[in-house]
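Reminder to self: tokens first, then the designed residues, so the page reads top to bottom the way the pipeline ran.
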């Protein structure tokens, strides 16, 4: 049994080598022909399987596989759904001034919130306790 397997691997390797050598360079995919020859010689079983699976360019005249045709396109024009980049007409100085105003606004809001918390704490402390 191992002898038969070895013969099959050698026959597959020889077949792959003959196929690689007889192919035109335009019919070889992913690697140059010489690289495929080296792969098939160094790794006979795996290299031959890879050659027939991905390396060989099969002609269109061979086995025809029916393919689904794309659906008919609608005749109405589709609106352009790509996001548009916003156009800002302000100068750099104006943008910086706006940012400074926003920063100042946030600082004032934080200060107001801090004062509210302090006033809230002091008002609960100032209430007289019943006793």
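Designed residues (131 positions):
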């Amino acid at each position: 049994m191992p002898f038969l397997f070895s013969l099959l691997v050698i026959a597959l390797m020889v077949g792959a080598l003959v196929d690689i050598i007889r192919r035109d360079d335009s019919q070889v995919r992913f690697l140059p022909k010489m690289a495929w020859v080296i792969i098939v010689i160094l790794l006979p079983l795996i290299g031959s399987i890879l050659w027939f699976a991905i390396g060989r360019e099969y002609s269109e005249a061979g086995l025809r596989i029916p393919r689904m045709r794309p659906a008919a396109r609608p005749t109405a024009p589709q609106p352009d759904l790509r996001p548009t980049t916003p156009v800002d007409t302000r100068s750099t100085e104006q943008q910086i001034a706006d940012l400074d105003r926003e920063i100042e606004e946030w600082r004032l809001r934080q200060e107001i919130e801090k004062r509210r918390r302090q006033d809230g704490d002091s008002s609960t402390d100032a209430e007289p306790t019943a006793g």
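The helical segments are 2-22, 33-42, 44-55, 92-126.
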